[in-house]
Amino acid sequence: MSKLPILVLTRPEAAAHRFLMQVEAAMGRDVPHVISPILQIQPVGVWPELTEVEVILTSEHAVRGDLTGITAHCVGSRTAEAAQAQGAQIQTVAINAEALLQDLSTRPADYVHLCGSHKAVDISARLTAAGLSCRDHQVYAQEAQPLSEQACAALEGEDPALLPLFSPRSARLVGEAIAKPGRHLHVIGMSDAVAAEWHATTGNTAKIADTPTGDAMVSGIVAALGGHVA
Question: 147 with 200: CB under 8 angstroms?
């Protein structure tokens, strides 16, 4: 059995540990890893009054307060599960922001996007341009932080390493944090936009997940790891 590459996880702490557990469960063994979040999630402000509105949730991090009886439109099943646990009535579960925009474009309502400080897709602007009512309410911030020395060494080193990237911003921040990707670094991006940002920042390419979902990212990492198991 050959040595497994090191898995470098740069998601926020809880999400990184959850992803690692999924990968190890699928592999049926421990996986060498480094966890070094490039972003830290911080709550912002007070929970808004949500009367006579429908909410848009593009991340589970936005689910910070009571959503009892509120109609919610979500990106991703994990976001939907978190919202439902807070009492939301789930109307839409889309695979990504573009799919959600398509779903909502013919469904007029008074929307509030409970969002973070950085948005890969400006949901409110897109819906407003389409003639719908939508406004942002920031409930969390994604604050950049440096990678650990161990993470940088793994990403820049000569030994094989795997790096899953889940957003264009994290791809840019990780790319900027290292001197140069190692020769045997294998990167998997969640979407075309993530891969494009990684290439723009580092000049290197990234494999794109089959679908923009967490499960597809796990499958991609497991497949890459499996190639190193005799």
Answer: no
Q: What is d(CA 117, CA 110) in angstroms, rounded to the nearest whole number?
A: 21
Q: Please, is 1 exposed, middle or buried when counting C-beta atoms within 10 Å of its C-beta (0-12, 13-18, 19+)?
A: exposed
pLDDT tens across 181-229, in order?
999 999 999 999 999 999 999 999 999 999 998 999 999 999 999 876 5
Query: What is the biggest distance separating any 2 CA atoms in the chain, rounded to whole angstroms?
Result: 59
> Contact 21/7 with Cβ under 8 angstroms?
no
Residue 12 has phi, psi (to 5 degrees) of: -55, 150
Residue 4 and residue 31: Cα distance in Å, rounded? 7
On whether the CB atoms of residues 50 and 107 are closer than 8 A, the answer is: no
CA distance 128 to 224: 42
Exposed/middle/buried for 71, CB within 10 Å: 0-12, 13-18, 19+? middle
- b/e sequence 12-39, b meaning 16+ C-beta within 10 Å: beebbeebbebbbebbeeebebbbbbbb
Question: Element (H or E) spanning 127, and its range?
Answer: helix 123-129
Contact 214, 158 (CB under 8 A): no
CA of 191: how far to CAs of 54, 82, 135, 153, 207, in Å?
A: 27, 23, 26, 26, 9
Question: pLDDT tens for residues 23-74?
Answer: 999 999 999 999 999 999 999 989 999 999 999 999 999 999 999 999 999 9
C-alpha distances in angstroms, 137 versus 82, 103, 123, 141, 168? Answer: 18, 21, 12, 12, 22
- Give the integer Cα–Cα distance in Å for 210 and 148: 30
